[in-house]
Description:
The structure holds two protein chains of two kinds.
Chain A: H1 14-20, H2 83-95, H3 101-122, H4 131-135, H5 139-142, H6 160-194
Helix pairs in contact in A: 2-3
Chain B: E1 2-8, E2 11-16, E3 28-36, H1 41-45, E4 61-69, E5 81-84, E6 87-88, E7 116-117, E8 134-137, E9 145-146, H2 153-159, H3 162-172, E10 180-184, H4 188-199, E11 204-209, H5 212-220, E12 225-228, H6 235-242, E13 248-253, H7 263-271, H8 280-288, E14 289-297, H9 310-315, E15 319-322, H10 327-339, E16 351-354, H11 358-367, E17 375-378
Helix pairs in contact in B: 3-4, 3-10
Amino acid sequence: MAYTAEKPPLTESSDDLRARIPGWGVDLDPADRPSVPRERFDPALSGAHWDFPERQPEKWPRERSIEHKFLTPVFGTSCPPRGVSGMMRKYAYKRFSEGRAAHWLILIAADRVDALGSHLRSFLTSRPDNPITETGLLSEFSHRGMSSRVGKKRADLVHQPLDAIIVGVPWVLAGRVAYGGVKGVVKVVGRSRRR
Amino acid sequence: MRAMVYRGAYKIRVEEKDIPPIEHPNDAIVRVTLAAICGSDLHLYHGMMPDTRIGMTFGHEFIGVVEKVGSSVQNLKPGDRVMVPFNVFCGSCYFCARGLYSNCHNVNPNATAVGGIYGYSHTCGGYDGGQSEFVRVPFADVGPSLIPEWMDDEDAVLLTDALATGYFGAQLGDIVEGDVVVVFGAGPVGLFAAKSAWLMGAGRVIVIDHLEYRLEKARTFAHAETYNFAEYDDIVVHMKRITDHLGTDVAIDAVGAEADGNFLQHVAAAKLKLQGGSPVALNWAIDSVRKGGTVSVIGAYGPIFSAVKFGDALNKGLTLRMNQCPVKRQWPRLFEHVRNGHLKPSDIVTHRFPLEDIAEAYYIFSAKLDGCIKPLIVPNAA
Lengths: 195, 382
């Protein structure tokens, strides 16, 4: 125990474990472990046949961390920045290093702005966002939602209801705003007819 | 092509997108035949990862068939069956030359702290992922490997991240014969870390979680001793009791950013996004390991600050080791372990969904319904 010199004895010997558990100890020797030591200098191992990769064409001004010397030779091209969220993202990259909380907090705020704008834009398309199908909520009924939780000692049950609030509140607020808007239009039209 | 698309926190759908073009001479376009949802995809799904843009396709665990290659590709040709590590890496930078493929400096303009990861936000490079029918694979001569004839597709897809990461996590623990190892988290990575700890000669492997069905898997698949932390007033005190008050030699955090067990920590991180991750499992690891022990962190955390008990780590003289797994470096040895039966990764697969049902797949995996441990995604074009 901790208060005396000897380590507490194990209940099973190495021979017992080797007999019980397939493969026990096959990587006992650190030389058999692929990430030991952590760094192994071997530039030929990867298969790269370049010292520095050829550069990928930059099709739009690609945002990058100011901790980089230059744009990396290869980069992802998913979802170029757009609209207000895009302006926020470009500002976060241009102004703040990765070491600054502002960099990340602006990016997270931009994510929310992006989501809101995309939801609103979706209502102008033939495929508006659908909170039922896009959340997969109906699998509560098809995949044992109740029995997966009831009677189980699960620590996540106390906060799972918050997920419904996070997803649902923006829709309730949007509905409230839409209702207010429609009500206002009806009122204005009614007034103009009475005149 | 059909592809999973992010529509905001907790919302995804399948949309029609253009098949990705060759953007660089060493690119390949791969037709995805099997993909998986990773626990770390849930951090994106829940809106926790900064710079996760609407319209992005997730998915960093996938295998497929080469459809097209760029002009400088030498090692692959159309028709090859390939498995693709979750890391995008160049093979030639300072870090890749030393085997640190997950820390590549030539693939992620958005951040210097992390390398490139398929389908994992712009913070990880802005690459679309493999939960789709086709995916762009940069550095085709460096990243992908041919799938051996004898290997099952489901084993192969789990080698692209989950198994490699769990195995890597056990290595970070510097386990010596007879060590007592505790693994926090009985998800796919935790199960593989526990199983791998035995390969490295652990004398006792303990797994902690709050989901009984996953603990059952830890007992049967990983031969582990298990405890449900929700049944104890203080799991750290229990860990001390069962180790004769010494603590464990090694503790592995295989949970990461959405750890449960402390309501305020979880809500601050996962719901309010006020910290990079809920460090409950990491703090338990720091508190449960013995003085002078090693904590291995393979659970994923975001780049923002987290409330980690660093003082205790200092005062206990701990070694903290962590990284994203350099997957391809693990493969030769893991191929041997899979071939000779020491590891059978597909034993943890519980669900298989067509791509069109991916919103349900995420919901079930996120809410931990129906005994879900590892869901796979089968694209229409498979």
